[in-house]
Amino acid sequence: MRFNSSPMLVGSPIRLHAIGFGPPVRRMSESANVTPGSVNMKALPDGSAVLTAPWETSGTPRTIVAETAWRCDARPTAACSSSPERTLGLSRWTLAAPSAERVVNRSEGTCHTIAVSLKSTDLTFCHGTRVICDGRVTPGVTQITQPGQEVSAVFRAPCDVLHLYAPQELLRECYAHVCGRAPGGEVMLGNAALVPDVAVSQLAHALVCAHVEGPTVNDLFTDSIGLAIVTRLLSREIHATRKAQRAVTELPRWRLKRAIEYIDAHLSEAIRLQDIAQSTGLTRMHFAAQFRAATGMSPHDYLLQRRIETAQVLLATTKQGVLDIALATGFCSHTHFATVFRQRVGETPTRYRAQVRDADHLTYRCN
């Protein structure tokens, strides 16, 4: 995220670092008249300096504007005249009593609208013709609307909502800060759902509470909190998009059937992952991921499970020796077979065979 390096100074005394370290700050608006008459600068041995009196500015800090119409950016033009394409708008929609009136906004500007619920309310919220929410909304719930998208709402309870209007240039700067590179085109936040976010809720309340205090708030504070909210929501959406892109589709049924048939047909052999993948026409990487998505098991775990299940059947229904059964089910030694069998069944192969036969003998005597 890009900031200009010229500091805006408020308060006294203030330490200035000559080498430019410290938090990035925003350049004072050109419309602000600076009166440095009584300012004294004292040099310190470490190369920094101290202001012994404040700078006075006649510029008026931006405020959270009370909305006269729902979701309308009602900022005075002068409030963002220095760089309107990068200035975050702030307004607040409050209702002291329920209203049956349906409010509509067509987002005709060029900004994304970010809504943050400051208190619980009950409403029906529509995104175009689709109902997004019809019920209770808790504090901290956020909603993002793209430019040009019609939204409407009916508030069945008192409400208090903070609206932020993020222009495209600001979103591009935030994107570059989050991703470490400039976006390839317009940055569009597409998730219109109502999503609770504790961090955004705390930031919004801090911003609102500071503006209630009035004279202690300046543009730097407003910009910092506003940009933190925008960056948080942008990061959340980028993360969700990347996660969705990484989501693996399940192995189609016909491919899963082919893989299982291959495993069963070659159970006594040394089966490699590449062999199973080739039987389905996929690479090892894609097959393994899709197989796990379809079965909840890795191909290796599934293969061991099939070997043990087959061994259980042979132990219960044949007189083959344990070593013969181990080799017939693809194990290279009696020891390896016994270890895996006990891990998955809970008994050694010999003990399992004895238990099954005892159970069968008891059933025969009862009959």
Note down, in words, how this protein is organized.
By secondary structure, the protein is an alpha+beta fold. It has 3 domains: 59 residues, no CATH class; 182 residues, Jelly Rolls, CATH 2.60.120.10; 68 residues, Homeodomain-like (Arc Repressor Mutant, subunit A, Orthogonal Bundle), CATH 1.10.10.60. Helices cover 40% and strands 18% of the residues. It has 10 helices and 15 strands. The chain has a 6-stranded mixed sheet. Strands 8-13-10-11 form a 4-stranded antiparallel sheet, with no helix packed on it. Strands 1-4-3 form a 3-stranded antiparallel sheet, with no helix packed on it. The longest helix has 28 residues. The termini are far apart. The N terminus is likely disordered.
Short description:
The chain is of the alpha+beta class.
Task: Note the topology.
Blueprint lengths: L13 E3 L17 E2 L5 E3 L5 E3 L4 E2 L7 E2 L22 E7 L6 E4 L6 E6 L3 E7 L2 E8 L3 E5 L5 E5 L3 E8 L1 H12 L15 E2 L1 H16 L5 H28 L6 H13 L7 H8 L3 H12 L3 H19 L4 H7 L5 H12 L3 H18 L1
Parallel strand pairs: 6-7
Antiparallel strand pairs: 1-4, 2-5, 3-4, 7-14, 8-13, 9-12, 9-14, 10-11, 10-13, 12-15
Provide the CATH topology of the largest domain. Jelly Rolls
Mean pLDDT: 80
CATH superfamily of the largest domain: Jelly Rolls
In CATH, the architecture of the largest domain is Sandwich
Radius of gyration, Cα only, in angstroms?
Answer: 34 Å
The CATH class of the largest domain turns out to be: Mainly Beta
Helix and strand content put the structural class at: alpha+beta
Strand content: 15-25%
Helix content range: 25-40%
Keywords: DNA-binding, Transcription, Transcription regulation
Domain HTH araC/xylS-type: 257-355
GO molecular function: DNA-binding transcription factor activity; sequence-specific DNA binding
Protein name: Helix-turn-helix domain-containing protein
